[in-house]
Design brief:
The complex is a heterodimer of chains A (about 425) and B (about 80).
Chain A (H helix, E strand, L loop, with lengths): L7 H14 L1 H4 L1 E12 L5 E6 L4 E6 L1 H4 L11 E11 L4 E11 L4 H15 L17 E6 L4 H13 L4 E6 L7 H15 L4 E6 L13 H9 L4 E5 L7 H5 L2 E3 L2 H8 L3 H34 L2 H4 L3 H18 L3 H44 L1 H6 L4 E4 L2 E2 L11 E6 L2 E6 L7 H6 L1
Helix pairs in contact in A: 5-9, 6-7
Chain B lengths: L6 H17 L4 H23 L5 E6 L2 E4 L8
Antiparallel strand pairs in B: 1-2
């Protein structure tokens, strides 16, 4: 038996042929972890996908790689879709990835997040762009399915709250491939018709796929370009769509959209009642005020007792007469008299003061005189000698045997000079 | 003449009259006249609100307004 010798190329081609023919290997959905991730300069991704016990090389070409809504990183858990084939130059098999999403996060959710971010950055959600919803709409346009629960809820709520308006239903597909264009074109139609002044755009609850039309750019654009204010009403409270962010007001549900669109007639009824009771109160006040004014006027003293006017005049006359009397000549003379006696009193008072002062002065002088009174000196023991009525002041004035009178404080002593002693000092002073 | 006013216009006018009266600037004659006008508007508003009709619903189909039949409740 002769064995056939093959080339490496032939073998590799054979393996590739075998693998490529296997349907199982052409449509693989794989859960794995990224490692050894490389973002090639031409835009392709080269990386390894692995789990606890095995790994496989993977490549994602630029045309698929650029659709990815997240940045792949080593260690990231992903879901990939692709096929296995052999790369002949290296002789290795690898996974050719067509789609890749983060494991646990839906692809639609990522698209939604990306669009939301892009439009927000472009200013589509700017609060300054939001227009007020008219309080009293003449007609409300509803872009939704004409057979769904949403339209029924909206009609019921508006009928209950404010039947003074009208509703025009713009029927649209709200699910499936054609939904986005259907919704967008009906928003456009309502704007063209110009029959409504508020638009409600929405549908009832569903899965993210069911609600997806309201995340489409064409719907967002239609809402943004609508000249009629738009209330979005998609799904339930927890559902947020791009349409909700672009709309002028987001309602959590279709019923709530109807409540936002029209004011409750009970509120309006109360407003009317409040206004009319204010009217009554004001007119009552006004009439009360005027009545009181009238009563004040009719009860005034002038009208009730005209004589009071004259009483007043009398009183004035009396006052003036009194003032005039003070100016009478006799009054003047009396006044002068009074002045005179006052002056007299002041004069005698000042005279008395003068006398007193003189008296006090005299007494003082007497005191001083007493100090020099010879009798006073004698009281202190001095004596006064006289010869024939002349006061003896020098020894030369007397001779031995002369009779001298010596005066002391209580009498006179007659004496005879027995001797004379002259002191030298006396000579000098004389 | 007042019958041609919409509800919105009527209630707006009513509230304006209330403000005018509250300002106390009106003569007695004007005040009484405003009061009567205000009460007429209030009556008009109340009458309209008390009308218990269902809202008129139309369907826009191929550019034409048609009567709209409310879809039946889902069981």
């Amino acid at each position: 038996m002769e064995r056939k010798i093959v080339t490496v190329t032939a073998l590799t081609r054979y393996l590739k042929y075998k693998i490529d023919r296997d349907e199982q290997l052409q449509d693989i959905l794989l859960r794995a972890e990224i490692s050894n991730f490389k973002h090639h300069s031409r835009g392709h991704f080269y990386f390894t996908l692995k789990d606890e016990s095995a790994q496989i090389s993977a490549v994602m070409f630029m045309r698929d790689a650029e659709k990815i809504l997240f940045q792949p990183k080593d260690g990231m858990k992903v879901l990939v879709e692709g096929s296995v084939s052999v790369y002949e130059p290296y002789g290795n098999y690898q996974l050719y990835v067509r789609k890749m999403t983060e494991d646990g996060v839906g692809e639609l959710y990522l698209q939604y997040e990306k669009r939301k971010r892009d439009l927000e950055e472009a200013g589509w959600f700017d609060p300054a762009r939001k227009r007020p919803i008219p309080m009293f709409p003449k007609a409300i346009g509803v872009v939704t399915s004409p057979t769904g629960a949403a339209v029924r809820d909206i009609i019921r709520v508006i009928s209950r709250r404010y039947p003074l308006t009208k509703i025009i239903v713009y029927p649209a597909l709200v699910q499936g491939e054609q939904a986005k264009d259907s919704i967008a074109s009906q928003i456009h139609a309502a704007n063209q018709d110009g029959l409504v002044d508020t638009l409600i755009v929405g549908r009832g609850g569903g899965s993210i796929e069911d609600l997806w039309a309201f995340n489409e750019l064409v719907v967002a654009e239609a809402i943004r370009n609508s000249s009629i204010p738009v209330i979005s009403a998609v799904g339930h409270e927890i559902d947020f769509t791009i349409a909700d962010f672009v709309a002028d007001v987001r309602a959590a549900t279709p019923s709530q959209a109807a409540e936002i669109a029209v004011v409750d007639r009970v509120t309006l009824f109360e407003r009317t009642q409040s206004a009319s009771s204010k009217l009554r109160l004001q007119i009552q006040h006004l009439l009360d005020r005027r009545t009181k004014q009238l009563m004040t006027l009719t009860s005034s003293r002038v009208l009730r007792d005209p004589r009071s006017m004259f009483t007043n005049a009398h009183m004035k006359t009396d006052q003036w007469t009194e003032r005039l009397l003070t100016q009478h000549p006799k009054k003047r003379i009396d006044l002068d008299h009074e002045k005179c006696s006052s002056l007299e009193a002041r004069l005698s008072r000042s005279m008395q003061q003068q006398l007193d002062r003189s008296k006090r002065l005299t007494l003082h002088v007497f005191d001083k005189l007493e100090l020099v009174n010879p009798l006073g000196i004698m009281k202190r023991g001095f004596a006064l000698a006289t010869k024939e009525e002349h006061i003896v002041t020098h020894v030369s004035e007397v001779q031995v045997g002369d009779t001298l009178s010596v005066r002391v404080q209580d009498g006179q002593i007659e004496t005879q000079v027995l001797a004379i002693h002259k002191e030298d000092s006396s000579w000098k002073t004389n | 003449m007042e019958n041609k006013l919409t509800f919105e216009e009527a209630i707006a006018q009513l509230e304006t009259i209330v403000k005018e009266l509250e300002s106390g600037q009106l003569s007695l004659q004007d005040a009484v006249q405003k009061y009567e006008e205000g009460m007429r508007l209030a009556k008009q508003c109340t009458t309209e609100l008390e009308r218990a009709e269902d809202v008129v619903v139309k369907l826009m189909s191929q550019g034409k307004l048609q009567d709209f039949d409310l879809p039946a409740e889902e069981e």
